[in-house]
Write a structure and sequence with these properties.
single chain; alpha+beta; four-stranded antiparallel β-sheet
Length: 124
């Protein structure tokens, strides 16, 4: 399989001393964890609804960050891509691939806005 991006979870001093691996293809994101007991999760990109980037002071010093993904996937739910190098670039690349997959699959995200009274605002 051709991966567009791959990295490991970074630990102390931004070094890849972890057994958590991340890989991204055009359609799926893979997360592999474990040493003795391995677990591989995957989420189809069109199922990711929202992404955000957070970087603590320590992460900024060592050039890493964490991407939080809100997903509609039943097994993955919301998950984090923890302490990766070049997090802004990865987030932008991921965002573009998500939009491309959502357009290709014709997936829409329906959001409702709540007014001040707790009622849903439904246009006539």
């Amino acid at each position: 399989m051709d991966y567009i991006w791959s990295d490991r979870k970074r630990t102390l001093f931004g070094l890849p001393l972890s057994f958590t691996k991340y890989a991204l293809s055009k359609e799926r994101l893979f997360i592999e964890t474990g040493f003795f007991n391995k677990k591989e999760d995957e989420v189809r990109l069109y199922r990711i609804m929202d992404i955000s980037l957070s970087r603590s002071f320590g992460q900024r010093i060592f050039g890493v960050g964490t991407i939080h993904c809100c997903s509609a996937d039943k097994t993955m739910k919301d998950f984090d891509i923890i302490s990766i190098k070049h997090p802004k670039e990865v987030k932008e690349q991921l965002s573009e691939l998500i939009e491309a997959q959502r357009d290709a699959k014709r997936v829409t995200n329906r959001e409702y806005m709540e007014d001040d009274h707790g009622d849903f605002d439904m246009d006539d």
